[in-house]
C-alpha cells in the first residue's frame, strides 16, 4: 500500500469509540444514513420482526455422536439453513469461561489509549492484522458506528505473534477462543454438508486448512441510533460465520424481505451462512444479508469468526448438487478474488455474490 495514502488516511481517522468518549450529543454527518436506509424507517415491503428466543432455531449439539440424536440435529440444521440461513447453537463444546475471557480481552483492547490502537491501524484489507472503523475506511461514503480489530487466526501459531500484545492477556484469551471456535467450525461444516446430502468429510482437508478471520467489534453507545448503523447490510464472503455477542443488535433479512432481530441467548453462538456456502450448495442454501443496529444506552461487543477456504482455493458448486434439473448457477471464486473486489467496490452498493451468478437458482 502506498505509504502516503496510508498516512493521509490515518491522519483523517476518527473512531466511533473516540466520539463516544467525547460525549457528543449528535453524530457527525459522515455517519448519517440517507432517510431510506435508516433503521427506524419501515418501508412498505419490509418491517422489523422481533422474534422470541425460541423462534429462531436454537440447536442443541449435545449427544451429537448418538446416532438417533445425530439424525435429529442434521434435520434441524437442514430446516434452519433452508428457512433462515441463520441458527444458534448451545452445548457447542466451548466453555463459558473461554467466551467470557475473549470478550473481556476485547473490552480491554478497545479501552486502550487511541495512540496504542493506532499502531495497528490500516485501511488495506490484505493486512493480516488491522484496526479500523466502518467497513472500508478509505472507500466508504458513509461510515458505520463501530470500531474493529481483525486478524487471521488459523493456524494460530502462524499469526498470534502479530496480534496485539496489549492488553497483556489478549493473545492468550483470544487465542484460546479462536482455537475452540475453529474446532466447532469443523464439526458444523460436517453437519451442514451432511444436511445437503454430501459426505460429512466433503472437502475435509480444505475445511480444516482454510482461513479463519476473527473480527472483534465494538459498537459504542450512540446518541442518535436511528440515523446510523453499526454495520451496513451485507453478506459474509466465507462458508460460515460463528458469532459471539454481548447483547442483541444483529438483524438479518428473511425470505419475506423483513428485518429479523436475532435475540441474545445466554451461552449460545450464532451461526450464519456466507457466500461460499451459497455457491457450494448451488443455491440450495442462501447466504444471509445482515446488519447491526446500535443503541443509546451502552456499547455492544461481538466476536465474529469468519471461516472460508484457503486464500486461493477456488470454490464452485459441488458437482453432486448439479444436474439437468439443477444446472450450475454460479461461477467459482476464491477468497483473494473477494478481497480484490472489496478493495475496489463499495459492498453496500454492489454485492460480490451478484458478480458470480450464471443464472438465478
Automatic annotation (TrEMBL):
PROSITE patterns associated with the record: FE2OG_OXY (PS51471)
Pfam families: 2OG-FeII_Oxy (PF03171), DIOX_N (PF14226)
Record domain Fe2OG dioxygenase: where: 209-309
Alphabetized UniProt keyword annotations: Iron, Metal-binding, Oxidoreductase, Vitamin C
InterPro entries for this protein: DIOX_N (IPR026992), IPNS-like_FE2OG_OXY (IPR044861), IPNS-like_sf (IPR027443), Oxoglu/Fe-dep_dioxygenase_dom (IPR005123), Plant_2OG-oxidoreductases (IPR050295)
Family note: Belongs to the iron/ascorbate-dependent oxidoreductase family.
Protein name listed in UniProt: Fe2OG dioxygenase domain-containing protein
Species for this entry: Stylosanthes scabra
Organism ancestry: Eukaryota, Viridiplantae, Streptophyta, Embryophyta, Tracheophyta
Amino acid at each position: 500500500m502506498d505509504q502516503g495514502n496510508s498516512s493521509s488516511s490515518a491522519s483523517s481517522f476518527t473512531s466511533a469509540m473516540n466520539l463516544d468518549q467525547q460525549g457528543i450529543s449528535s453524530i457527525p454527518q459522515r455517519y448519517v444514513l440517507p432517510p431510506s436506509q435508516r433503521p427506524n424507517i419501515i418501508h412498505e415491503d419490509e418491517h422489523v420482526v422481533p422474534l422470541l428466543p425460541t423462534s429462531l432455531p436454537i440447536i442443541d449439539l449435545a449427544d451429537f455422536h448418538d446416532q438417533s440424536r445425530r439424525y435429529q440435529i442434521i434435520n434441524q440444521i437442514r430446516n434452519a439453513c433452508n428457512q433462515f440461513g441463520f441458527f444458534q447453537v448451545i452445548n457447542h463444546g466451548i466453555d463459558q469461561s473461554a467466551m467470557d475471557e475473549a470478550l473481556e480481552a476485547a473490552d480491554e483492547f478497545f479501552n486502550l489509549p487511541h495512540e496504542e490502537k493506532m499502531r495497528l491501524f490500516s485501511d488495506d484489507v490484505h493486512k493480516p492484522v488491522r484496526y479500523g472503523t466502518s467497513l472500508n475506511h478509505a472507500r466508504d461514503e458513509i461510515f458505520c458506528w463501530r470500531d474493529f480489530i481483525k486478524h487471521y487466526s488459523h493456524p494460530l501459531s502462524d499469526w498470534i505473534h502479530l496480534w496485539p500484545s496489549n492488553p497483556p492477556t489478549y493473545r492468550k484469551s483470544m487465542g484460546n477462543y479462536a482455537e475452540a471456535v475453529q474446532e466447532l467450525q469443523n464439526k458444523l461444516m460436517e453437519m451442514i454438508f451432511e444436511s445437503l446430502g454430501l459426505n460429512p468429510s466433503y472437502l475435509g482437508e480444505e475445511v480444516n486448512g482454510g482461513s479463519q478471520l476473527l473480527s472483534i467489534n465494538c459498537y459504542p453507545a450512540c446518541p442518535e441510533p436511528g440515523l446510523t448503523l453499526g454495520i451496513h447490510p451485507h453478506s459474509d464472503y466465507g462458508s460460515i460465520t460463528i458469532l459471539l455477542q454481548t447483547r442483541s443488535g444483529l438483524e438479518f433479512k428473511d425470505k419475506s424481505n423483513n428485518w429479523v432481530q436475532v435475540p441474545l441467548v445466554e451461552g449460545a453462538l450464532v451461526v450464519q451462512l456466507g457466500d461460499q456456502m451459497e455457491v457450494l450448495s448451488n443455491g440450495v442454501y442462501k447466504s444471509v444479508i445482515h446488519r447491526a443496529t446500535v443503541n443509546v444506552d451502552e456499547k455492544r461487543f461481538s466476536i465474529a469468526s469468519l471461516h472460508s477456504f484457503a486464500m486461493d482455493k477456488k470454490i464452485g458448486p459441488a458437482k453432486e448438487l448439479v444436474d439437468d434439473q439443477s444446472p450450475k448457477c454460479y461461477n467459482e471464486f476464491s477468497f483473494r478474488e473477494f478481497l480484490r473486489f472489496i478493495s475496489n467496490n463499495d459492498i453496500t452498493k454492489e454485492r460480490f455474490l451478484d458478480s458470480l451468478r450464471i443464472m438465478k437458482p
